[in-house]
Design brief:
The chain has about 500 residues and is an alpha/beta fold. It is built from 17 helices and 19 strands. Helices cover about 35% and strands about 20% of the residues.
Length: about 500
């Protein structure tokens, strides 16, 4: 059978592209190499508890806010969303002292001004800037709009902006303290990424009651309702090029499926590896893509708790044992951690929590040729030591945590690589560099006219960023006006 569009990978970006194009009447087929859909939205169950792999919370989901508008389009707003504490959705702990983030730009600035009174005006300047970025998200989809504002912010340094705007070094750290949602790299991080992500969460912050896999499951059901096809256990092993276009994809080394257009939701380098003998993809382009650096990955300790041992907190906790937050992801040191609580189905106490800390690929690279469950005792000891460090750091805000732990399940960038096909287990895709945008910021287009890219490796990562990128990719197929015609931006 021939499809209008074949999509490689059923991560968030792949599923969203499938939905957008199916809604436009195209005959689409999504091919997923694993038996489970969702990529980093996958969850897994151990005993009675369910854990998430990469999804923990989202921002901007209240009525009229950007992600709410986008998720309404995808039919995702009827999932069991749970809003975090408006007065303290995030807690940053530095030097043993807590700083709380409130929802709403004015409330956010006012709450922190109570602890940093001399920075009141600077905080207003900062939040007004974030609000401008947040309000401008809709303009990104306007084919007749002016995108110069956001483009210019991609070419500015987030680190330099903070230093220019906030004169108190401790406050600069506090404002950076919830940024385990991105890679804090002073020499590369673009201001737009920093501002867009932080702005979204200041608008409002939400968890799902239950697992993030609900998002993937709902998208898949909606795609199939629209007539789309989704195939799991269907690894694309080759792209067939005929007369300068992709004419078919090879699945599991055997079956050929034809398509007019192919969209890849996997890493661009992995995409090019499927296209060995292309006459259009020059070696200089292959070298550029293969040499792009990936952001760091995450070590995660998924912890089952003993009954009635740890009270559920309706916020996230970001804990640091260093005052140098922009260099907290040092190889071999556990200096930062995000503590995320699963919303309990009933009761007052948490059943399980996740503790995440940055981990560089170099820390696990020596096991890169091994497979899940067969990495050896040294790897198990390495993970146990890292889990102990995470629990120790988290204990600074949860003193009874060591005694409350029932079981611990761990994952490293190797785990993410093997289960989600993420290059080097990267948490945020390809590293964007404000000083080298033309090299590190990718568009959906490739040298092959009917081969497109989508997902977190393009210009933006995170749930909001990937969702925006999905529309940009689909606009290459149906045009931007058609792609966004059903979006209800005000």
């Amino acid at each position: 059978m021939k499809y209008d569009v074949i999509i490689i990978g059923a991560g968030l970006g792949g599923l969203q592209c499938g939905y957008i194009l199916a809604k436009k009447g195209l005959n689409i087929c999504i091919l997923e190499k694993e038996h489970v859909l969702g990529g980093c939205l996958q969850s897994f169950k151990r005993a009675e508890n369910e854990f998430d792999t990469g999804f923990h919370y989202v921002g901007g989901l209240a009525d009229g806010q950007p992600l709410n508008i986008l998720f309404n389009y995808f039919g995702l707003m009827d999932l069991p969303w749970h809003q975090l504490d408006n007065n303290a959705f995030d807690e940053v702990v530095i030097g043993g002292k807590s700083y709380f983030f409130a929802n709403g730009y004015e409330q956010f600035a006012e709450r922190l001004s109570e602890q940093f009174p001399s920075q009141r005006q600077n905080l207003r300047t900062y939040t007004e800037f974030l609000q401008k970025v947040g309000n401008g998200i809709a303009d990104s989809f306007n084919p007749k709009g002016d995108a110069i504002f956001s483009q210019s912010l991609f070419a500015r340094s987030a680190y330099e902006y903070l230093n220019e705007t906030i004169s108190d070094p401790l406050l600069r750290n506090v404002l950076s303290g919830t940024s385990l949602k991105m890679e804090l790299n002073a020499s590369t991080l673009p201001l737009y990424i920093f501002a867009q992500i932080n702005s979204s969460f200041i608008q409002s912050a939400w968890r799902l009651q239950g697992s993030g896999s609900q998002i993937a499951d709902k998208l898949a059901a909606n795609i199939e309702r629209l007539g789309g096809t989704i195939k799991s256990n269907a690894a694309v092993t080759k792209l067939i090029e005929t007369e300068g276009r992709i004419s078919a994809v090879e699945v599991n080394g055997a079956e050929l499926i034809e398509a007019d257009t192919v969209i890849s939701d996997i890493h661009p380098a992995s995409t090019l590896n499927l296209l060995k003998d292309s006459k259009l993809v020059r070696n200089i382009y292959r070298k550029r893509i293969s040499n792009l650096e990936n952001t760091f990955g995450m070590f995660t300790a998924n912890i089952s708790l003993k009954p009635n041992a740890v009270k559920y907190l309706n916020r996230n906790q970001f804990v640091y044992s260093t005052s140098d937050l922009w260099n907290a992801a040092t190889v071999g040191k556990t200096q930062s951690a995000l503590i995320s609580y699963r919303v309990p189905q009933n009761g007052y106490y948490a059943t399980n929590i996740d503790i995440l800390t940055p981990m560089q690929w170099s820390e696990v690279e020596k096991w890169s040729e091994t497979h899940v469950g067969r990495r050896g005792n040294d790897y198990l000891l390495f993970k146990q030591r890292k889990a102990d460090e995470c629990i120790s750091l988290a204990s600074s805000v949860l003193p009874n945590l060591p005694e409350a732990v029932d079981k611990v399940y761990t994952s490293t960038p190797l785990t993410y690589r093997d289960y989600t096909a993420t290059a080097q287990g990267s948490a945020y895709g390809i590293r964007k560099n404000y000083g080298n945008l033309l090299y590190t910021l990718l568009t959906p287009r490739t040298p092959v006219p009917n081969l497109l890219l989508t997902g977190q490796n393009l210009n933006l990562h995170g749930v909001l960023g990937v969702t925006m990128s999905s529309f940009f990719t689909c606009a290459e197929v149906v045009g931007m006006e058609a792609a966004i015609s059903d979006l209800k931006f005000k």
